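User: structure tokens for this one?
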Amino acid sequence: MKIAFVGQKGIPMKFGGVEKHVERLAVGLAKKGHKVFVYTRPWYTPASLKSFMGVKLISLKSIRTKNLDAISHTFRATFHAIRKKYDIIHYHGVGPSLLSWLPRVFCPKTKVIVTFHCIDRTHQKWGWFARLFLYLGELTAVTFAHDTITVSKILQMYCSEKYNANTIYVPNGIELPSKTPAKEIKSKYKLKKDGYILFLSRLVKHKGVHYLIDAYKQIKTDKKLVIAGGSAFTDKYVKQLKKQAGDDPNIIFTGTVRGGSALWRELYSNAYLMVHPSESEGLPIVVLEGMSFGLSVLGSDIQENMEAISGGFGFSFKNKDVTDLKDKLQYLLDCPDLVKKVGADARKHVDKNYNWKDIVNSVERVYEDVLVDHVHGKASANIKCINC
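Assistant:
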């Protein structure tokens, strides 16, 4: 098959859950012999990079502002893809899916797939105008695609209840990593094995790191708090966080940490505990990654986090509740044996249920099905679940 990916910033992944998802999926499909093309933005992936691990990269410029970056790039990528007559055009995210109707009109033989990663319109960084278009993106994601993939069962149910839409559940995934000792983090940040609590994500308000800083400042511990992530058009929020942390030497801001880098691997490998206080998610890859490194994860009790950690594979606190977060943090800091055991169980759990090899096979099957037989249409089918 000849497959194009549209909507992501680029690969190889520097930051971003969608970019990690696309990288693993594209590389996995290329290894299986498919011709895979990923559209990239030059500010994220150098235009000089033409291929990555068997995947062809097509660099197109975007209007790099918060509101226009994604849609302007998707517009250019869509019209480029239409001319190339791919077998599959796969849009990632509800924002980019706003343009998914164009291939249906101008190259009807090409099949269109959309992956619904998250209910983006709930994110606090967006104004009302952007939220309106993200809402319209949800409608197009479940209307114009030949098939729509959701990365969590919660999102699958959301699409069914809100839009009466049939979707296919294929989750985010991980590759079980090997752990590495503390070297760079020891010399650069004076961090040691089990000596810190880890938050790793973009510094955007809906990720909830401000709750974590408040809670951390109220607990008794000699462990440091590492906040690993950078701005995503959110410089004002980042300044607020650093002001909130004040001059506490035990709160460390690393800035953006490139996914898959030595620093990234060391931070995951040597943390005592990972905290993910997000207010809104799809199925957070960062939580699955933490679990894959054998970390216990303390997450807000939103449904998407609970889908990953429920069943004894993590811990939760009441969303947006600093007092509950503080109490749960203190409890886990006082119970190292429990933290270690749950982390070990979590590693086995994600290897069994969220392995990228299985996920690549599942998406490949979606492509094959939509190319071979789409006679009955989406509306008449029952909700499907691949790799449940």
